[in-house]
Amino acid sequence: MSIEDDKIALRDQAIAQDKIVVPDSYQGVTKQRVRDVLSKVDQSSDNKVDVIFALLCDEPSWYKKAAKKGLEFCDGASVAHIGTHVGILQRERNIKLDREGRDYWLKPFWEIGAVEKVYLNSKAEFNPGHPVAKSANSAYRIAPEFLKILKAPENEWQDLAEKWMQEDVKRERLAVQAEQARYTAESVETPHSRLIRVSHKVYAPRFLKGYDVIYVDDGDGDRITEKERQALSEAGLEITINDSMPDVLLINKETEHLWVIEAVTSDGEVDIHKKESLEAFAKRNGKSGVGFTTTYLTWKAAAARQSSQKNLADGTYLWIHEDTSRNFFIKQ
To answer: What are the residue boundaries of the BsuBI/PstI restriction endonuclease domain, all occurrences included (predicted)?
Structure first.
């Protein structure tokens, strides 16, 4: 049974017994205080209020290994955890908050430093940053300084919020968080991160001469950095929240032709759906076309996936890192 199923069962049982599922406050902070503070920092909406209230939850962590160490939900919760807490526990529905909407109800918080990205390591400790792309161990928690505002006495929190909003304070806050995340990232390189790296540093220079990398998705959360956003803009590409972005995106500036690389260690090959979606993206942005490559680290990994999935789209390419010199064309 999944976490979501467990929470639905808990909710239904509590309602049947006429019990309150969610308390009036977590850590002494009511939802009304959350709403007041978010209004003060121009971030108030029902979803955002409920998300911050969820991240205050001081009940045992929903990560089993973290809970065993005595950690709580507020120490680090994934997007799925937060969405379930809001949609199922707080709102008493059968639907969790939409994961795809996190750019609306989570991203604004980490952009101002109110929420920190954290990663649950093998020792059941939460470290700063999201060093592993698309990992189930990528989580979020309220930043300590913002938590102080939420928990401050009634006659103090507004002054704290005003100081917290000052631009120089914000820049310093974000710089510290970025440095902490960088340290964590440098200590971790997953197979997926490694494959993404060799895909654009080994494969692209050999087989995609004339193409420049403009986007690399080797992280989690904020899909596009400011540097990449500028590069995309200069290339005449507009990204929307509905676009399915690849692991690596390149462009040949002379021919206005794009190239997509998907680095696969678990799933995510260039299948028909992804091919059609990114062809539509290229057309919408006035590009001459787009090519595709799916990469794997080893023949064994490629065989394991394709023996069961057989989902590589016709007219795309396949490259395997341990067989670096060959680039295979997929023809049905």
So the answer is: 191-325
DSSP 104: H
Tokens matching residue 119: 């990663």
Global model pTM greater than 0.85 = no
Q: Is the pLDDT of residue 14 over 90?
A: no
SS (H, E, C) 271-324: CHHHHHHHHHHHHHCCCCEEEEEEEECCHHHHHHHHHHCCCCCCCCEEEEHHHC
Residue 208 has pLDDT above 60, yes or no: yes
More confident residue, 72 or 267: 72
Rounded Cα–Cα distance for residues 224 and 68 (Å): 35
CB-facing half-sphere around the CA of 309: CA atoms within 13 A: 17
Domains of the chain: 3-180 (1.10.10.1820), 191-329 (3.40.1350.80)
Spatial CA neighbour of 248 closest among 207, 299, 306, 286: 207
Q: What is the 3-state secondary structure (H, E, C) of 216-249?
A: ECCCCCCCCCHHHHHHHHHCCCCCCCCCCCCCEE
* pLDDT, tens only, 162-187: 999 888 888 888 887 777 777 666 66
> Where is 260: in which H helix or E strand?
strand 257-263
Percent of the chain with pLDDT over 90: 62
